[in-house]
Design brief:
Layout: H1 2-5, H2 16-22, E1 29-34, E2 39-41, E3 49-55, E4 57-63, E5 69-76, E6 80-81, E7 96-99, E8 103-109, H3 110-119, H4 121-145, H5 150-161, E9 168-170, H6 174-180, H7 185-197, E10 201-203, E11 207-210, H8 213-218
Antiparallel strand pairs: 1-8, 2-7, 3-6, 3-8, 4-5, 4-7, 9-11, 10-11
Length: about 220
């Protein structure tokens, strides 16, 4: 466990022995195993302990008023789950958290996390970096939602994830990308294939290569 935690952003820069000195299961922290498909946490559940993935990956999802499920994010070990909601006046989860695979989670009690940040400037600095990075990611997602058309959303995504020097972006699967845009797989493929026919991009099995960045920019206007 401690070797895994050296790869966790919260303990970046620390050795396994250093982490072992401050983290001991049973002392303000617990380890829990979940099976694939298990509901780990419900939306609006009080978030009183910081969850850290030791093994596997989970997804965060929301259900809209008409019952449609929207996948918000996928989190892989050894990342933190919803660290921004651990403190503050409304420390409740904004999403459901579900196991994509068999999962093992270390939960640090909120009081312990606060003590660790008081006693170790490195952990405090790491936590602030994590929150800042998450805020940056979410600001980009919110900006993405400001576009009305799927074509504009795709154009913004590709421009943000590629450059003139690195025009190719890897994609996990068409289905996952469709979920990211809250679109159907068929509608996403229709747009992508249309852009490919116009020689704006090139589709691969696991990647997309931007051919004409200027044409993508025009789609944002």
């Amino acid at each position: 466990m401690y070797t895994i935690l050296t790869e966790c952003p919260l303990f970046r820069g620390m050795t396994a022995d250093q982490i072992k000195e401050i983290i001991e299961p049973g002392q303000n922290c617990t380890i829990t195993d979940y099976k694939e498909g298990d509901m780990i946490a419900h939306k609006d559940m009080a978030y009183s302990g910081l969850m850290i993935l030791l093994r596997g990956d989970v997804r965060g999802q929301m259900t809209d008023p008409v019952g449609k499920i929207l996948k918000v994010d996928t989190i892989e070990a050894p990342q933190l789950i919803a660290p921004a909601f651990l403190f503050g006046g409304y420390n409740r989860l904004p999403i459901d958290v579900i196991a994509n695979t068999d999962v093992q989670i270390l939960t640090l009690h909120r009081g312990l996390v606060f003590e660790l940040m008081q006693e170790n400037i490195l952990i405090l600095s790491n936590f602030i970096d994590i929150i800042s990075n998450r805020a940056n990611v979410w600001s980009k997602k919110i900006y993405l939602l400001s576009y009305n058309s799927l074509k504009a959303k795709i154009a913004h995504y590709l421009l943000d994830h590629t450059s003139e020097q690195a025009p190719t972006v890897e994609i996990p699967s068409i289905t996952e990308i469709a979920e990211y845009f809250a679109a159907t797989r068929n509608s996403l493929l229709t747009v992508l294939e249309g852009l490919e026919k116009k020689h704006i991009l090139r589709l691969g099995k696991e990647h997309i290569t931007v051919i004409n960045r200027e044409a993508l920019r025009e789609l944002l206007n």
